[in-house]
Structure prediction request, 373 residues.
Amino acid sequence: MRTPFRMHAVVAALGLAGAAFLGTAHAQAIKIAMVIPTTGPLTQYGDMVKEGATTAVEMANAAGGINGKKIELVPVDDACEPKQGPVAANRVVNSKIGYVIGPVCSGASIAAAPIYNNEGVVVVTPSATSPALTDGKNYHFIFRTIGRNDQQGPAAAKFIITQAKPKKVAILHDKQSYGQGIAASVRDDLKKANVPVALFEGINAGDSDYSAVITKLKGAGVDFVYFGGYHPEMGLLLRQAAEQGLKVKMMGPEGVGNPEVNAIAGAAVEGMLVTLPADFSANPKNAAVVKAFKDAKRNASGAFQLTSFAAAQSLLDSIKAVGDNPAKVADHLHKATIDTVIGPVSWSKQGDLKAFDFQVFQWHKDGSKTLAK
Prediction:
């Protein structure tokens, strides 16, 4: 294992992350696009990724930059929308930026990946978990610093089978790449374990009334509901289930693990189960990084802050090793093992992490979470 790039200090925000997209910057700066949703209903996930990437870049710049050059983060909005993914990708390419942290959401990532790969832009997504991003694509420039749905789904299914032990399960999803994919993964593992799945059904993301599906859940006599999707829909499902007297345990993937779910669900959020990346902020080896987050009034313990920090580390470490050359950086990532805040990381031929730790947490109405047992 090579010795990774070390970041020893943190400074106050330099304003780089908020620079205008086509604004002039330090002539020698290494530009990294940060493709996140800054508009739309999923901006909170963009905020998580921004906090992680910005903290990593601030620490790197305070330590002298990379090979004498400062790093500049350039925010690009894709609204987490598949239709906007290629638009954002073309903005990155036209601005001659060779590196991307993001995209955040699977649908937008899948839509944009061919452009990035064909144009030789190195992408490290800290949050897109759909296997469809990389399976069968033969991409050379696309990587993740998070596990896939077919790693997260089994973690959820194992908990349901061995801990929750429901009598009858309903599985809902939002009909999108991310949500439907992970829901199918959970369903398949439950069926293998002979856990009855009474219902597998999609709901429309963005709807405001799920009373019809709540009625169907009541009629099916389920005692456990798994939902594949994001927090706006999960919050409504929780609240409306409580309002209609449906008393079931509900569980979702990391897409529901957002403090905003509390504002939507209210007290009904108490006890929601969620699979999330392990709490890397609790690792004593990350104490200096966690302090940097706190000093900047940021939260290191969210779903994607430290996976995005690790994405930045992976890019910066590789640039330090082989120079500011995206093709060489991609080659390096395929061969390297890099020491990051989420542990040593290395990638398969198709850019997926060889291992990743998803854990099950219980969500509380005060916005905190505890490891589920």
